[in-house]
Amino acid sequence: MAETNNTNAERRVEPERRRVGILFLGGAKRVSMGQKFIDAGRRLGVDVELYDYELTPYVPLASIGRVIVGRKWKDADLYEHLHACVEKYGISIMVPFVDGAVEVAARYRDIYRDLFVPVGEPSGAAAMFDKIVADRIFRSNGLPVPRSDRFPMIAKPRCGSASKGIRIVHSPIELTSLEISTDRYLLQEYIVDRREITVDCYVAADGRIISAVPRYRLEVQGGEVSTTRVFADADVDALVRKTLRATGLRGAVTVQLLKDNATGRLLIMEINPRLGGGAVASVLAGADLPEMILRDAMKLPIEPVTKWNDRLLVTRYFAEVGFNVDSEP
User: Staple 257 to which of 118, 170, 197, 221, CB 3.0 to 4.6 Å?
Assistant: First the structure.
């Protein structure tokens, strides 16, 4: 009997890949980090779709994701609008990238509980963004901070960011003349001969410290690092881990340290409970923060990072994104 072709033969059907919607809050210029989220999703077998919540559609992240024009962080209907966006676009992960968005993301999670947010409790976030309160927390836990009883001093607005409003004060008379009060400014000794260190950390939802990768801030533009050098140091690692345990923070955490070159002291400068602007350096060095966030959200195993490229230097540059507009932006 002659053989015939079976036109009804079973065809192999590829399983549909899981889709993960991620909403950045204030991620306007985080194109490279956004791409790292997409790449991490691909490795995990999921399709990452990026969205960004902004006040204008004309931001660089539009080149790889969809921009949602939203509300200001203090608007009365912010949370209702965010929730509508989460439901409309199928968001399952929310990642804040600017200070004001961290507490918003944490509070949204507490209200609706319908998505994963890689930050700690709202109260913890608020405390870290008040420099005077944060300083008290550090001191109460026996963590090393700059002294507050010697000149010259650096005066930092208690709720400022990106180095705005900072002043160097050389004497008590100058302190009085500038009308710098201790209820509006954090006053600390000004260390001239210093190295500034940023540590990109991730603390899983179960409290495990997954990574803590330090880097030197070699060049800063507009309050953000533009050139950074990854390194490894046991003393830095020990201090950062002690700090993370004392503060109880979760998710992406950026710890800022100072090293007094004259004495060798390591001092805590501040903590930003979110992904830092230069955190891509740690990703490139081997601590894949986006993959950690995706794994945490998807309840997949996360292995601690114990080794990374401690000789990596990363320098950042400007890139252009063009928009067609019908009127003045």
Answer: 197
Beta-ladder partners of 18: 46
- Cα(325)–Cα(62) distance, integer angstroms: 14
- Please tell me whether the overall predicted TM-score, pTM, comes out greater than 0.85 for this model: yes
Residues 6+ apart with CB under 8 A from 74: none
> Beta partners for 254?
200, 272
* Mean pLDDT confidence for 299-309: 97
Element (H, E) at 153: strand 153-157
C-alpha distances out from residue 316 to 63, 169, 181, 319, Å: 18, 32, 37, 10
User: Do you find a cis peptide bond into 152, omega within 30 degrees of 0?
Assistant: yes
Chain-centre distance of CA 9, in angstroms? 52
Per-residue pLDDT tens over the stretch 80-123: 999 999 999 999 999 999 999 999 999 999 999 889 999 999 99
The pLDDT of residue 162 is 59
The runs of H, that is alpha helices, within 44-129 are 78-89, 99-112, 122-128
One-letter amino acid at 249 equals L
